[in-house]
Design a protein that fits this description.
Length: 112
């Protein structure tokens, strides 16, 4: 037991005096840690670069997608207006009755 304690003290004394081989393992560990840190930073920067490229690609297509959606919404609106117009032309009395009922329901709901 006493021999093991003495060996541990001798090792710590060799490391603390800064000379000989005692400093090599700590500098090697520092070098390895630095290499791992650099590798992690390179991986993070690569992932960030990929993310930036993907977002640029997505942003380039955004105006085109917005125009397409606007065209689709416009055509759906035009079809809906056309359908309602045809319904009113073919059934004017029924359309007037439906409009009155919808207006009455809306007025009742707003009054509360």
């Amino acid at each position: 037991m006493w021999g093991q304690k003495q060996e541990a003290e001798d090792r710590s004394a060799r490391r603390s005096d800064g000379g000989g081989n005692g400093a090599l393992p700590s500098s090697r560990e520092a070098s390895e840690a630095f290499v791992k840190l650099r590798s992690g930073i390179e991986q993070a920067s690569g992932a960030l670069r990929d993310l930036m490229q993907a977002s640029e690609h997505w942003m380039q297509g955004l105006p085109e997608r917005a125009r397409y959606m606007a065209k689709e919404l416009r055509s759906q609106g035009e079809r809906a207006v056309g359908t309602v117009s045809q319904q009113v032309e073919h059934n004017p009395v029924t359309s007037l009755a439906v409009a009155f009922v919808v207006g009455f329901i809306c007025a009742t709901m707003l009054r509360r």
